[in-house]
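ARCHIVE CARD
Drawer: 12
Card no.: 0347
Subject: one protein chain, sequence and derived structure
Cross-reference: see card 0346
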Amino acid sequence: MTDADLATQASLEVLSTRLAENDPLDINQNLFIEQVKKGVRESLKPKPDTLETRFVIDELKRVADEQPHQVFIKSVGTVQHLGNGIATLSGLPMVHLEELVTFPNGVQGMVLNLDRKHVDVILLGGDSGIRGGDVAEATGRRLSIPVGMPFLGRMVDPLGRPLDDNRPVVPSEYRFVERIAPGVIDRAPVDTPLYTGTKIIDALLPLGRGQRELIIGDRQVGKTTIAIDAILSQKGTDVKCIYVSIGQKKSSVLSAVETLKAGGVMNQTIVMVSSPDDPPALRYLAPYAGVTMAEFFLDQGMDVLIVYDDLSKHADTYREMSLLLRRPPGREAYPGDIFYLHSRLLERACRLNEENGGGSITALPIVVTQRGDISSYIVTNLISITDGQIVLDTDEFNKGNKPAIDIGSSVSRVGSAAQEPAMKSVVGALKLELSQYEEVARFARFGTEVNEATKRQIERGQRLTALLSQGPHKPLKMEDQVVLFYALTNGFMDEIKPDNVEQFSQELLNYMYNHGAQPLDQISHHRELSEETAAEIERELELFKEIWKKKAKKIS
């Protein structure tokens, strides 16, 4: 350091002393002091004097830049309380909502509550091996599950782990469980039919690809049967199917799987199971995981049918979790966001326009009622979210009328917009006729005298009711239904007793497949009933009617 540098540093010390003693200094003097400080710092920096020194400094910088230097910051917390699938932790200062947390035993959890002093985490596995005082680490990741074509034909849990055997599933990719539903601009109108194989639904309550149709009814009245039949009806089509079981008995799920295998549709179906003994978190995540798998096929331009069986148990699981998380209860002890629970799920079912691939997700959510009360809290929420409802009546079920659909309370808000021209031309005003028959039949039960026209109306209604009756797991193709409804509406069943309608229908279809398959193929191919095809059906019906009369005479 030169004499000038020493003098400058001494001056700086004098000025700093004066400033510390609160001597009055103006702004210019303060600026001068800062400039002097800067000059001193620059003068005190070591300066390379030779070429060799510069080379050594540059080489040291290059080596330092090549060395790996990373700083890892982990957000950790301590388990304060554990029970019922919920863990309360202190710490975790940088954790986010829905972030995954790893516990010492390898089980992961998802953050659902953030408070100033603690964090609540739902466990995605068993709590054995986790104790108070254990340290949990935040992963910085959101929950994602594997998706892809290899999951077809498999039975998995909500995290994508196989349950049917030990054979692993190689996923196509991983996707976040929570996702924002497609916007209105990305969607297309629902106008392509999706046949369920159930005559009364396909004729009077038609469904379209991309629709959300709610199935309502008490316990053990055939709700799951209708949904399974809808999946069975997709055999031979390009529709992928997903059946989500939420808190159902394992025996019921295995029975459904065996039915799907026997029906030949298991190879295009994914069965997702969350049983009652699973942690609440898995039952809560099951429907969201199911629709996440469905969205993989949606983005490939495919059509998907997904069944949620059932959302009543899903709502009960969320209520259980919310009370354990100390969230304030509302009506019927459900939390205030119970509507958002299902709306954000069902809004993901849609039909995309051609610019976005043209795929669709059709949702059939199931909800359970108590003694037929469709005005209960969860049921009314779901009715307002969906595009229609299929209501099953317990009294009709007990009478043996299956499927026990209450046609007066059921509705499809898409309606004939998603119905093939062939079906639309033969069903006509059948729904009105059925409603009028039920009204007139009530008076006839009380012994009221009715005229001949009313008697004929009652007899026709009885035949229609018998025709719409259908056994479980016996879905009918669209062209078969068209022939049956054509025979009814054109008077070919007027002389058939209601008790014989089922046998007449079965033998008529057998005859058509053996002797009149051409009109069936034309209906299946063109999806409409032309005059030539109608004439061929008329001719075959006349021939079959003569065969039926001869058979009836032999029996009598």
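Annotation on reverse: Confidence is low (pLDDT under 50) at residues 19-27. The chain is about 45% helix and 15% strand.
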